[in-house]
Amino acid sequence: MKKKILLVCMLAMPFVAQAQFTGPRVSGAGQANSAVVTTVAAASKAAVDTPVLLEGRIIRQIARERYEFADATGTIVVEIDDEDLPREQFDDSTPLRIKGEVDRRWNQRQRYIDVKSVQIVR
After folding, report:
1. Which CATH class is domain 31-120?
2. Which of 13, 37, 58, 73 could share a disulfide with 42, CB 3.0–4.6 Å?
3. Contact 37, 51 (CB under 8 A)
4. Phi, psi torsion values for 98, nearest 5 degrees
């Protein structure tokens, strides 16, 4: 009996592994979700985990590691770990490029950007 159970488990393993793989996220008509959002307005409406590449300015600090970011289309909250901030001094007039992804708190509707890197635009 133990040998039969072991044999069934071994034969089923490839099917279980294949069933767990979900592949790339799909949006719309079966297209992979690989588009990068490039404006605050689009990021404010984008799905969670959508990649973003924004150029604009940090106009104020809201809390520790939370800032208000603005571009020509609007403003959005960005969350930046201290180690991901540029080493150089910058202010609210310094143009920045941020890379990250759209996120939101489980109990809130408003989206924010979870920033992975920040560069000063020259």
Report:
1. mainly beta
2. 37
3. yes
4. -120, 140
The position carrying tokens 């992979």 is 32
- The predicted-structure confidence for 40-70, as pLDDT tens digits, reads as follows 999 999 999 999 999 999 999 999 999 999 9
Q: Quick one: pLDDT at residue 14?
A: 56
Structural domain spans, the chain? 31-120
Residue closest to 44 by CA, chosen among 107, 111, 100, 104: 111
Which residues face 120 on adjacent strands? 96
SS3 track for 35-53: CCECCHHHHHHCCCCCEEE
Q: Which residues make Cβ contacts (< 8 Å) with residue 20, sequence separation at least 6?
A: none
Whose CA is closest to 111, among 79, 83, 76?
A: 76
